[in-house]
Amino acid sequence: MRSIAAWLTIVVLGASLLFAAVSLPFGSPAMSDMDDYFISHGQEQTGANNIVTSIVFDFRGFDTIGEACVLFTAVFGVSVLFRSRKKGEDYEYE
Amino acid sequence: MSDCMSKLIRTTADIMFLFITVFGFYIVLHGHLTPGGGFQGGAIVAGGFILLIVAYRLEDFLKWFQKNTFQSCEVSGLVLFIGTALAAIPLGYLFFMNFLNGAGGLFGQAVSFGINPGVLNTAGTIPVMNIAVGIEVLGGLSIIILYMTSGIRSHEEGE
């Protein structure tokens, strides 16, 4: 009984996801207001010819600040993990 | 790990390091005109340093480049990035305002609208932030590989 219910769930979920993926026409998104705005105004507002860079570094600059801080934190964690131990120093949590 | 790679690999790494570094800085500097940007170009430059670490011994690499250089690269890149964003506030703009765009100074040439190949001296604070992020990423990725290589070595020495 449980296996039948599991298979039924998989089939129904997979069919609905597949239907959603197939019924979406390629290259014509449902809402394109933001895309149209960026494409038509990005160059004159930021001065950058590369729309992707103008979005990443100007329209969504907070996101990039977060990314840079994430990278800094990752390097900090690696440096803590791989630090060289002093002579005679034991692991405290073992 | 105690020996470096063969002479063939070392010579190839010597030659390729220059080209990889130049290509990475090209990607960083042209981030507002061509595909790419600070993250991608910084990763390419860090790849050049990683090639040197792999081809040579770690002691040889640390003779040429200090560990502190990469650390200060990373920190100064992050500080320059946030400082560029904060510098708009004392000048009377909002946080993260592109105040250099069209001002006529550094990166301030007026851009010609429409489809064009582009001029390097445009886009205001975007190239500055690209350079800052590029410096940060090249320092960060290189220092990660440096720490991991030294970790392997201290493990192999039975410490």
Blueprint of the fold:
The complex is a heterodimer of chains A (94) and B (159).
Chain A: H1 2-23, H2 33-46, H3 51-59, H4 61-81
Helix pairs in contact in A: 2-3, 3-4
Chain B: H1 7-29, H2 38-55, H3 58-64, H4 67-86, H5 125-156
Describe this structure in words.
- The complex is a heterodimer of chains A (94) and B (159).
- With 94 residues, chain A is mostly helical.
- Chain A contains four helices and no strands.
- In chain A, helix 2 packs across helix 3 and helix 3 crosses helix 4.
- The mean pLDDT of chain A is 82.
- Chain B has one domain.
- Helices cover 63% and strands 0% of the residues of chain B.
- Chain B has five helices and no strands.
- Chain B has helices at residues 7-29, 38-55, 58-64, 67-86, 125-156.
- In chain B, helix 1 runs antiparallel to helix 2, helix 2 (38-55) runs parallel beside helix 5 (125-156) and helix 4 (67-86) packs antiparallel against helix 5 (125-156).
- Chain B is elongated.
Q: Short description, anyone?
A:
By secondary structure, chain A is mostly helical. Chain A has 4 helices and no strands.
How many structural domains in the coordinates of chain B? 1
For the termini of chain A, the CA-CA separation is 46 Å
Q: Low-confidence segments of chain B, ≥5 residues, pLDDT <50? A: none
Instruction: Give the SSE string of chain A.
Output: HHHH
What is the CA-atom radius of gyration of chain A, in angstroms? 25 Å
Work out the strand percent of chain A. under 5%
Question: Key features?
Answer:
heterodimer, A: 94 residues, mainly alpha, 70% helix, flat, B: 159 residues
